Fold:
Amino acid sequence: MKRLGVNIDHVATVRNARGEKHPDPYYAALQSIKMGADSVTIHLREDRRHINDKDAKKICGLKKVLVNLEISMNDNIVNNALKIKPNYICIVPENRKEITTEGGLDLLKHKKKLKKIIKKFKKANIRTSLFINPSIKDIELSKELNVDCIEIHTGKLSNLVKSKKNFKNELSRIKKSSILASKLNIEVHAGHGLDYKTTKILTKINTIQEFNIGHFIIGESIFLGLSKVIKNFKKIIKN
Ligand code: PXP
Structure:
């Protein structure tokens, strides 16, 4: 059974645009699970541009919600995450200037540091994942790092599909990486830039067990929700 993780960072982005309390990502986490999501993802970024420490603590404290906390390799963030104790961790590269996570981790460059971090989370019984590009070399390195899962960065595939370019080679890279990881007993996840079409394409790869999707789900929810909210207001102002 393939699982869906819903990334709710952008609920916090909308909230923060006003600096008030609505919409609350805590409520979005509860709603996502109620509506059938298998887990929620939040990214506690070094610049706290969306989810903040208070959100992360509150959401990770929810007993009924499996929370996947995305973090960088920054020491303070790692220590914070060990205190917050999410169910899952996904280590991602982070660059202050980026709009969103651009590409996977450089496993070769950060091998030593990653090994230490993964050991800490494993000791704390937290399922740990590495966000990587679809490459055989990175799968082999992930095995050496003894990580539980890998999440394949699907941003390149998504961009190719959306711009109607040939995506066969990228899809084949994702498939080969995913099959090898699975053979090596590493659980495979996929995420970044996914929408209905790209997710459908990737469901053909049986070894992908989890999809983590954010921007499209939150954006599409505006259109699916607008009619109901407008109807509510029309009722309120009727008289
Ligand atoms: N997975 C990881 C590891 C990410 O960093 C992100 C973006 O925060 C996502 C999934 C979700 O990407 P998107 O918002 O494009 O669906």
